[in-house]
Every structure is written in C-alpha cells, then in structure tokens.
Amino acid sequence: PMTKQQFIQELSECLLNEVDSQEYHSSIEYYSNYIETEIRKGKSEEEVTMELGSPRLIAKTIIDSQLGKENQKERVSYYERRDEDADQREAQKDIFHIFWNQRELKWYEKLGVLLVLIFVIGIILTILGVAISLLVHVILPIVAILIVVRFLYQLFRK
To answer: Which chain regions cross the lipid bilayer (predicted)?
Structure first.
C-alpha cells in the first residue's frame, strides 16, 4: 500500500523527461485530484492507490499515449505538406524537419544517428580510397604505356 505522496512521487519520477511539460503537469494534477476526490468519498489513501495500481504502469501508459499522439502529428504533418501548393511548400519546413522536430531525441537515439553517420562516411571514404588506388595503380600506368606506345609508333612511322 502507498500513500498519496508516495504514489504521486513515483508517478512524477517516471514521467519526468519522458513527456512534455503540459502532459506531465496535467497527469500529476489529474491523479492528485482523483485521489483527493476518492478520499473525500470515504476511502483511505492506501485503498485509492491500490485501486489505481502501479504508478509505473500508469506512467508507461501516459508515455505511450503521448508517443502515439506525436506519431499521429507526424503523419498529419506529412499529408498536410503534400496537399499544399508549390509556393507554400517552399515557405514551410520540409517533411524531414517536421519528422525530427516533433520531440527531443534521447541520448541513445542521438548516439545511434551519429554511429550511422560515421559508418556511412566511412563507407564513402573507403569507396573513394579504392577508386583512387585503382586510378593510381591501374589506370595511370595503362595511360602512360599508351602514350609511350603512341609516341614510339609516331616516331618510327616517319
């Protein structure tokens, strides 16, 4: 059994930095008011918090709900963007920015993006290295031989 304060504290810790400020305050206020209302009806704090269940599970539901809303905003933004005429498209953000600006990326998401970028840049540099190596070791000697052969051919032709 938990007290109201313990319940709100755990819910607060679980929601902090996981949902936007408005959702955070709204959720904390809602559950605080709900518990107060039930206590006024004659229930104990422990009864109310037991009926509500785990604050962690409630927080997970709230977080998942907000992520669902964000994903819906991304889809709506994408389709609104496609429906606008060409002049408006140039004035507004492109689809890429609408997608990435919906929420702050977590540290591990940023790290993942950075690692993918480093990997892609590494592949590009490797391909360029192979191309330059091929140029220096194969194509340039062939071109040099062709120039010498042509020079000798023209020299002995006369």
So the answer is: 111-132, 138-156
